[in-house]
Prior knowledge:
Layout: H1 17-43, E1 47-58, E2 61-70, E3 77-84, E4 90-98, E5 109-117, E6 124-132
Antiparallel strand pairs: 1-2, 2-5, 3-4, 3-6
Amino acid sequence: MVENAPMKRDSVLPVKPWRARIAIALFAFTALGWLGWSAWFHSRPALTIQEIAFTITSESSTELRYEVTRREPDRTVVCVLRALDSSGAVVGEVREAIPGEVGEAALSTAARRTVVATLGRAAFVRVDRCWVTR
């Protein structure tokens, strides 16, 4: 019968517990910092749009009331408004530039009332997208 030879221990140094704790603490600190920054950044968007109401004024015209709130009131905002028929096809589109305001009295919210000319009867009108120009 073969006798079991005693096992030799490798000469690998064990990981010191304080190094592991420091690595975990650094990872946790970095993760919490990123989470905090991400929550703060996404809770303050550069631009918010609120559609208030739309009116179908005729077979070839609609009107949309909306508000744009921007973080930097001196920047120009461009919005695309679209009128859609009952099947969802685009029957009218307007690109509107909202100029920035300069000075201490500059308002961050701009209320707009825009007429959108249509090729046929629209079912509804919406703000398709807006962006801040540089």
